[in-house]
Amino acid sequence: VLRRLPSLADRLRLRAVCRAWRVSATGLPPSHLHLPWLVFGDGTLLDVANNTAHRVRIPDDAVCYSAGENTFFLVHDDGRCSLMDVFSGTPVTPLPELAALLAACNVNARYELLQPITRVVVSPAASAELEYRLVAVMIRTGKFLLSTCRPAGEPNTCVALDHYFDFSIADIRFFQGKIYALSKINETLRALDLNNGYLDELPPSPSCIDVICGVRSEFAMTEEPHLQKDPWPYGHVVAGRYLVECNGKLLMVRRWARKPLISFSYYSMTEFRDKDGYDLERTRRWKKAQGLDGWAMFVSSRCSKAATAASHGAREDCVYFAHQWGRRDPDNPIGGSGVYNMRDGVITRPLLPEPAAVGGSMLWSRRFPAWVFPIEV
């Protein structure tokens, strides 16, 4: 029966019937031919392959943020913070020190309209490079907080890294024992060695940060195939930049959008004041990737990840991107999403052949889908 169930949700329901069924299912290989799911800020899970919606129970007094993989970062009304597994629905790790630092920064997570927390990233499990798991939190004011994630009862170390990355950050990523930050404008990449997770022993100044140069004329990518086929007369702009680990490499993904007729704003003025005062003689440069070596990439503003295409029933050398819910089409929460084929430069829309099975009453601040990766246990 398990082999005939294409839906991961149905497979999990079958295993949950009783202990005997669950034990019998452990001897079968997992069903990997399913795409990752999408999660919204109200706890709605969307099974993309089957266009079916499920719901995760979020505490009434908490605001949740996708923290990548299959993890939520919860901030309660009383200031408590914790990590929660998306599918079990149980808070697994309290983070009292990080909660205290957020309170010191006057972060009101309940004020969702301005999205005070813009990005949450959790490092992979403990390894030779990182003894402790780490949680990185980006705040709209420009601050960048980093905390260890130790078992309950053990004290955590928590620091603010805003003086290490003095620019407007587009994305952050843990990679090979370091944390990388990508500049929005110049696409400069800076990396800080995390000293195996001992945050109280970080370098006292940013002078030892590794730097990768930003945009150069040979890397402008103004002649991308999908832009050549778009007749929009006003040109295009980079609407998003994402860092993704893929097959042992750290890649930057650009998302292009049609340039609006009126693009002037106070925020666009201030973001062009990025500083590049570090020693650029030690730098490397971006190199354009021609393909993903048979992998597939899943990109969203909250969580991005790459995996072998065969492990998720995806197409090789393709980027699956999830765009936020636009106000012009409230009946389709992922209307701007699709698949970009790196081999021929073709974008296929929509991601789903029909409107997604997600309610239309969702608050605007929670209409930012993120990829989650279910694990059969």
Automatic annotation (TrEMBL):
Q: Which domain of life is it from?
A: Eukaryota
InterPro entries attached here?
A: KIB1-4_b-propeller
KIB1-4 beta-propeller domain: from which residue to which, for each copy? Answer: 47-341
Q: Which Pfam families match?
A: Beta-prop_KIB1-4
Record-given protein name: KIB1-4 beta-propeller domain-containing protein
- What is the originating organism of this protein? Aegilops tauschii subsp. strangulata (Goatgrass)
